[in-house]
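Reopening this ticket.

The earlier resolution said the output was attached, but the attachment link was broken on my side. Pasting everything inline this time so it's all in one place.
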Amino acid sequence: MEKLKIAVLFGGCSSEYDISLKSAFSVITHMDSGKYECVMLGISREGEWFCFRGAPEKILDDTWNNPVDCARAIISPSREIHGVLVFDGDNVSTIRLDAAMPALHGRNGEDGTVQGLLELAGIPVIGSGALASALCMDKDKANKIVETAGVPAPRSFTFRAGADIEACLAQAEGLGYPLFVKPVNAGSSHGITKVPGRDGMPTAVQLAFEYDNEVIVEESIPGFEIGCAVLGNDELITGQIDEIELADGFFDFTEKYTLKTSAIHVPARIPELKAEEAKGIAKTIYRALGCTGFARVDMFLTPSGKIYFNEVNTIPGFTPHSRYPNMLKAIGMTFEQVIDTAIGLAVKTKGQTKGQAKGQTKGQTKGQTKGQTKGDGSRVLSVGA
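Inline output:
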């Protein structure tokens, strides 16, 4: 059987360039080489596109962008080409693609821009499309849409540069401190500040504007953050709920990628019924925002047991040690199976239907979670097999 040509896009003109390299390397090196031919498309920090033909390890250590291994390339918007134009000196060749996976994080990759180009070219996107990607990236619009689906979100307001600062401070007082100041469109917690009082607002706002031209101010929800991996289009698979345990502050960029003072528990140390409720809410959020393929839905769980929406990552971290694959690993899916299923959802290859993917994990969720929390709903520090 002829291999499917799957493009993996990496790098990007984004503050999350380095994170993208790690995700792309992991996807490329765990893709089934017997079924897929990987076409590696690198985007420099400056936004230049290349077809990379070197060893994947060069992606990981960021030595990929060199004249020996690269040729300039672009995705053609022409549906007749249905793929990539590669420029080798005076020669122009084409690579027809069966699907493409943007392993890109943050702006200019996770925000619907690249997804729109792929959709224009008629190339199936592995993951969410342009509209869902754009909506999930926009914290304000995502909050509003999720609320219409019946899921509460933190109270918030937005403003742009030049807004009346005194009026903004008055609105902030209405939300109550502490609160969070965030760029409306940014990922990996870039530009986010937890503000304990009025005096901290100017610096927090200035930082947020370094990443976007619109800022959102949100109330602080008591409790802790939980996440849910969702995989699928119509029928949805959910991984085990995970939990972020913080020693102090919030889950900022440093904590996300070093876990210096925090820990992630899979499954979350919450009652089984509450975990099932969270999975159901995650599916509601996923569908409300029009997600397809895969996404990680992040929520807050309050001390009283109420679940609030936080955000959706349409391209979550994608290494074997990242939160998303680890939640699915907890229901019996290997990293290779996750990638294979995600590709299958986009190209609908034989043997990779939604029903089969569901069958791979049937019976592995409820049984595995049972007995991992005490009957009184209290947390346990260790999780049995």
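Reporter confirms the inline version is readable. The CA atoms of residues 332 and 361 lie 6 Å apart. The first helix runs from residue 17 to 30.
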